[in-house]
Amino acid sequence: MWKLESTKKIPVYQQIMEQIIEYIQKGQLNPGDHLPSERKLAASYQVNRSTVVHALEELVSLGWIIRQQGSGTLVNEGRWGRSATPRMNWRQLLSRETPQTEPYLLELHEIQKDTQTLDLYTGELPLDLIPDFRLPAYTWEELLIEEKKQRDLGYPPLQRIICERLYREQGLEAATNQVLITSGAQQALFLLLQVMLEAGDSVAIEDPSFLYSLPIFDTAGVRLYGVAMDEEGMQIEALEQLILAKRVKLIIVNPTFQNPTGNTMTLKRRKQLIALSEKYQLPIVEDDVFSELNFLQLPPSLKSLAPHQVIHLGSLSKIFGSSIKIGWIVADQSLIQRLSEAKQMMDFSISVFPQVVAYTALTDQSFETNRQELIDTLKHKRDCFYSCAQSVSSDWQFEEIDGGLYVWLKWRHQKLTRKDWGLFLQEKLLVAPSFLFSNDTMAMRVNYSRMTEEECYIFFVKLQKISEIIGGRKYERDN
Ligand SMILES: Cc1ncc(COP(=O)(O)O)c(C=O)c1O
């Protein structure tokens, strides 16, 4: 009974997990049954005891088994042999002080609507670039018929078109039962957090990262640790040190046109990351919300390089704006099932309406042409940004980007303070300083897609003015 087929290409601990789950599902193990001791399991599977411990810990955190002091490891007696209780800790959440809103953002939101303001802070495409399409002309009755087609994992026609697109764009093979439709990628992250992590667990993310600003991790008591990046992406040695020091449970990366740096992880680094995650048997979440906005051929997705090791997230927000709020998770079927159960427990059902709209948008005959036009426009805007950048001083350093929405500009001189960043607000130039994504204060994210050619020129004129003042402050401080 406790033996593995040697042909499977997934990590051994996952094979052990899968086998135990299968025994529970098929009734070979029943609620309350004892599992053999770790030592016996290790001997029978012919693996290290640590591999067995890892598999059992994962099964405990997923609720399939429980470990009791003195009586060993038992199959959980909860419904279907596991507890699907979501882990939102409301008591803890409500007992905490409301985190203070970042003062910079309070001020930024105050002036955001002012027509004089140049908003390069907002992380989405401007309205005029979002591809247009006709809304579906459904009668109410027809919509109700579509609603009846909904399944636990989402609206099947939308799931199918997502699978087709993933295959076409990324060579990623996924069946519809491996795709869960969510209300945006943020909900996808929230569900993963609820199902895969516990309070006190550590997660490795890029430093800087968009996730740094999300309250969902803090609320769940999950600790985020940033791993420094270089031009190839997350640094592997630094990640390994973190894994060893903090017992990381999950790695979340945004490898393509990363938010905020715009960086794309090289193929070499992708392979190294996968090798490291296999070594420590850690799952990777690939947050892939920008890859549709690519100017050049992209390296293969992490998911296509390691289908069982990687959980893939996508979203339509970056192409159709966040009002549609449709995202998806692609993962092994057993995890998708768990996530779907957690989603239902939290009553996160998604109305069929935005799903029908998303389906219509993606199957609209002109979608591909519109997307290509959008990419051409973005390319043009990027080129305009670079050529304007040539004409001003080189106080700011930045890397070339080949897609996505962001350019990351690093200040070359002394440390910047909040007061320095306040100057941008005074000039009504809204940018996203690095302290929103990290402990760093020396860089900023600029959404170049939001500027016309003329605004791009204005941006650099204002930047030049601000840089001179900040540089002048340095002079005052140094003397
Ligand atoms: C890297 C990244 N992941 C996830 C999200 C959330 O996406 P959604 O709007 O689909 O919830 C964003 C939004 O900006 C993002 O930049």
UniProtKB/TrEMBL annotation:
CDD domains: AAT_like (cd00609), WHTH_GntR (cd07377). SUPFAM superfamilies: PLP-dependent transferases (SSF53383), Winged helix' DNA-binding domain (SSF46785). Residues 10-78 form the HTH gntR-type domain. InterPro entries: Aminotransferase_I/II_large, HTH_trans_reg/aminotransferase, PyrdxlP-dep_Trfase, PyrdxlP-dep_Trfase_major, PyrdxlP-dep_Trfase_small, Tscrpt_reg_HTH_GntR, WH-like_DNA-bd_sf, WH_DNA-bd_sf. Transmembrane segments: none annotated. Pfam families: Aminotran_1_2, GntR. Gene3D superfamilies: Aspartate Aminotransferase, domain 1 (3.90.1150.10), Type I PLP-dependent aspartate aminotransferase-like (Major domain) (3.40.640.10), Winged helix-like DNA-binding domain superfamily/Winged helix DNA-binding domain (1.10.10.10). Keywords: Aminotransferase, DNA-binding, Pyridoxal phosphate, Transcription, Transcription regulation, Transferase. In the C-terminal section; belongs to the class-I pyridoxal-phosphate-dependent aminotransferase family. This is HTH gntR-type domain-containing protein. It comes from Candidatus Enterococcus ferrettii. The lineage of its organism: Bacteria, Bacillati, Bacillota, Bacilli, Lactobacillales.
